[in-house]
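ok posting inputs for the NAI job
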Amino acid sequence: MKITLIKGDGIGPEITESMKKVVSALKLDIDFEEINAGLSVFEAEGEYIPQRLFDSIKKNKIAIKGPITTPIGHGFRSINVELRKRFDLYANIRPIKAPGPLDLKFDGVDMVIFRENTEDLYAGVEEMISEDEAHSIKIITREKSERIIRSAFNYARENKRKKVSIITKANIMKLTDGLFLDIGRKIAKEFPDIEFEELLVDNTAMQMVINPQKFDVLVTENLYGDILSDLGAGLVGGLGLMPGVNKGEDIAIYESIHGSAPDIAGKNLANPIALLLTFALLLDDISEKDKAAKLRKAIYETLKDKENYTKDLGGSNTTSGITEAIINNLGD
Ligand code: NAI
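and the output
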């Protein structure tokens, strides 16, 4: 099977290298079609996303990517946002669960965040009103809200989850968030087997750091989802461990939550586990659940020994060192 691989910037090349070693150890019949995007491509070719990348994703339908650096300002649109919009990858799905026995403040956190990925304040509709005033337009549509909320409920049902919480600020943004909430209430009626909860985003943030075990599946708009999923990552070991996927109707791009980590790039310090768990999500979706379980088990075993920990987990192991430990724990 062919999968498009985007190495990305910063720590991207190091963690994708680690992933390739693990794929080889898992003896999977996967052929990576490597096409890069981002800063390095811009410097060499003058464009951030080459047409051949769009063509490859369209053909293979599945891509896995390392992080891409987004230059701030200069009227520049994020490459990540561009890819999500181009392929209409409307659902950003982020499981929040510790992948091993870590020293954490909370045990038993196990939630999944469904974040709408294409609109809200990330739609990129901004304008300068004057030199001293800038506006950004928040866009919420019925169609896009319905499909993210419905996919969260379908996921809950298929994965035997008990509850879906819809997160808004509908008390203040009565039209935009009000529409999102109203759609949620209607869809919840189609799923009487799933408990439905309405929460405001500020309250959610507080509850996530007081009683995070109460959450199951959360569905929310783009900005709130972005922030809450980083908050969630902090609850279960940090950005170096958190997987994610962007899904549309028939195309998916798998990527971890973290960015290109320029502070540690090129130093063999990055934790590859986030990308490896992202790859495990991909395996689940291509009917390789046994291999996905084997990889998760190897990661769990590796995290039992603090000697294996990289710097983000308080240890001193390297990217290549922890990759080797995981491969050893895969067994035969
Ligand atoms: P970041 O996630 O790159 O880094 C935040 C902190 O976490 C840093 O201290 C970094 O060293 C650490 N960190 C992140 N991933 C790690 C890993 N795998 N192992 C160990 N430590 C890790 O966030 P930041 O600094 O805000 O963004 C850097 C660049 O990445 C920006 O250009 C941003 O736009 C881009 N970015 C790209 C994303 C993507 O491609 N999906 C997502 C988020 C940010």
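notes: The first helix runs from residue 12 to 25. The chain has eleven helices and twelve strands.
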